Amino acid sequence: MTRLTGHQNLEAMKAGMFLRKVKSRTWKRQRHYKLQEDSYIVSAFFSVSISDVEAVRAGHQSEALLSVADEFPADRCFTLVFRGRRGNLDLVAESTKEAQAWIQGIGALMENMENMDESTKLDQWISDWFSKADLNKDGRINFKEAKKLLKMMNVDMNEEHASSLFKMADKSKSETLEDQEFVEFYKMLTERAEVLDLFQDYSSDGQSLSQCDLEEFLREEQLEGEGSYEHALQLIDRYEPSDTARMNHMMSVDGFLMYLTSPEGSIFNPERQDLFQDMSQPLAHYYISSSHNTYLMEDQLKGPSSVEAYIQALKRGCRCVEVDCWNGSNGEPVVYHGHTLTSKILLKDVITTIANYAFKASEYPLIVSIENHCSIEQQEVMARYFRDILGDMLLTNTADSSELPSPEALKRKILLKGKKFENESENPTGEVSDEDEAAEMNKDSPVTESPPTNGKVPKLQQNLCKELSDLIFCKSVHFHSFEHSRTSAKPNEMSSFSESKARKYSKEAGSDFVLHNTRQLTRVYPSGMRTDSSNYCPVDMWNMGCQIVALNFQTAGMEMDLNDGLFTQNGCSGYILKPEILCKRERLFNPEKRDDYHPLLFYVISGQQLPKVKQKAWFIVDPLVRVEIFGVPLDQAKQETKHIDNNGFNPLWNETLQFTIHTPELALVRFVVEDYDKASRNDFIGQYTIPFTSIQPGYRHVHLLSKDGTSIHPSSIYVHIKITEQ
Question: Which residues are annotated as a binding site for Ca(2+)?
């Protein structure tokens, strides 16, 4: 077989070809797909940018393609995986050669995009818009078309000013702009006066920043300490586009803007991006990124179950997934939300997926929380699958110890959580944990705050297979009281609480709850009433030191923004060391009695290239910025700027928002940009959430994320941050 070269791959994709789209064994449709010049893949009912593609999987690597494996060979099949929560696209080519053209071609385009610097990415973004406006594909647009395009890009400009800039950019005097001329026109139109003012404040000659000028800026404004002189030279080498300026250790305004919009100039402290925390403390000392009913793609009643949901959660750094096991036909256990219309998937497929993806995003231990509803016979099958498929990854050693092992000690290990026998001689029955949402709905089960007077703990009886029990590391136990737990609980015992029960304990016995969580793992899950897969706010649970705060990962919104914000730090490992105040057993944490505090000033300056919320050519957003503080009750607050009429392009707010933070270790800051609407609810434009302790002070860009948590480059807001200590 002759292999297509990289160039031939792209040419074949641009020419287009028929591919079979597969949704299931019975749903297969032929569609014509082609690659456009603007790096969009399109068909009659479909359009996606290469920048939205996260991965290309070759072969039968999806449920839909596995279902047609007997009909189409693996070397003709491939799957496009998209960023965020967008569903995958499963395709079958007419030949192996055509499949390879798409797999290799898309891979090459993705690699090219990964390697672009910020300046090239911006040029590419502008060029993509130009291609959309160039309807007759002659590589030129006139002023009327340029105005229409700017409206599409969320720009409402002064026509006279835009016209004079258009003429300046029209070097050929043809009254039209070519691609690169339009890029120059756009850059002139979007000149950042607020950045130029700051640049000139520190420039000795008003034209450039010397190494000393830049050092002064880094020290005075960005609050960098020792090493700022050397850092200034590194920034010049990294971001200055002019070779001459670079050789003379100078930075132009273009280089200064490139630094400010780079990851180094962002609000997120790069020192906290990689693994920086001590990973050798007991598991109970860490927040653990956790998913609820991981198998579900949509709601809790009738939506699909899929192994893809496990892949998505694990790729996001999730370190605790849930598997609800029920008896299936032909002796095969299945996973689904019992007593509902959600679809069923085979347990062995779930375990295989977990084995394949467990440690792709993080090497730290993965907890698999088992809700076991199977017969003894099918539990034996479960045990065999866990043992055979997970192999050496499965941790079965539950040696007695006074405390849980550390994430470091458990690297690349999978821990099963579920019902377990107390000892070898125990009757074949096991304790049923509180985690079954059916139990939560049973209002006849009173919550007792004290253990039974006879000292014996009553058990709900359910048959349990010894082979499965032997594989369990974290034993699910019913919670009786904090006193009972303090005197009797073993380190590997874990209780699960519904959100309402956890909230009740935090209000009635907060200090006891915090103390409990210094020793034991606690899992919190959403109320069974949340049939739409909505989420509760995880912050209240984190404040109590609860480690496994399980959320519906498939549901975008503020709650998942907070989860993503917390777990973005520490190398996206899925483990965050709890603040010392929540790990000390001898000194109980009381958030209401902190006498030190941190005044926090956000001077919200401007926004850049905000996306449209309605794809109508004439529609332009009226953006406002809201800053929300989440943390202990004393710190919770929100403030917002005024809205700016008709400007999603370069709105200027120049407003100060002021907060007081008493417990910075537990505070998360969420920036939300919305389109103001006086008649109805504001529309969401973008957001960014960051732990307070990961904020870099000074002049910073906040790079906005979509509702799905994916980048909407180059959209950002420009802020000046001051944090002082009292």
Answer: 293, 322, 324, 371, 620, 622, 646, 675-677
